[in-house]
Amino acid sequence: MSELLKQPHLIKKATEELDKVIGRDRWVEEIDIPQLPYIEAIVKETMRKHPVAGLLAPHLAVQDCDVAGYKIQKGTRVFINKWSIGRDSSIWDAPEEFCPERFLGKAIDVKGQSFELLPFGSGRRMCPGYNFGLKVISSTLANMLHGFNWKLPENMKNEDLSMDEVYGFATSRKFPLVAMMEPRLPLHLY
């Protein structure tokens, strides 16, 4: 929501998609999510730029191997920094910008097959709750945008919104987000 509030035109694009696909007479349901590519792109871009945890669970090399020219010896504990991967300019154009459009029309998944985006990890050490987590995040975001108009408080400008994070086991905002909302759908739906 912070990234969207910094760029209100992204909220407008998302709500246009929601109005076109869902209409304004009901809430978004789980079955609707595959028909909402812009919502999916926002979720992917958020996971790229703001991963919940900066490092994947440690992996252990079970045999000697070569990864991108680096010799990894059997028994080495390997940590993968997905925060750095998400900001790598050799992988992403303008990696510091929040741009959901970078995922439109591209087959980059979040289920561990596209190594440039690993929010849930990959392989045997992949988060077992990824499917549930993805559905909850997508449905919640879609309904927050579909059901409400969002804006910053009157005394705050988009550029004043801090994007500072606190890093630890999980990454969280350094300062809480304060936002104003008002109903967007007909009142009988609330």
UniProtKB/TrEMBL annotation:
Key words of the record: Heme, Iron, Metal-binding, Monooxygenase, Oxidoreductase
Cofactor(s) the protein requires to work: heme
Chain sites annotated for binding heme: C127
Keyword Ribosomal protein: no
MF terms in GO: heme binding; iron ion binding; monooxygenase activity; oxidoreductase activity, acting on paired donors, with incorporation or reduction of molecular oxygen
Listed PANTHER family: CYTOCHROME P450 71A1-LIKE (PTHR47944:SF5), CYTOCHROME P450 98A9 (PTHR47944)
Annotated protein name in UniProt: Cytochrome P450
Organism: Quercus lobata
Origin organism lineage: Eukaryota, Viridiplantae, Streptophyta, Embryophyta, Tracheophyta
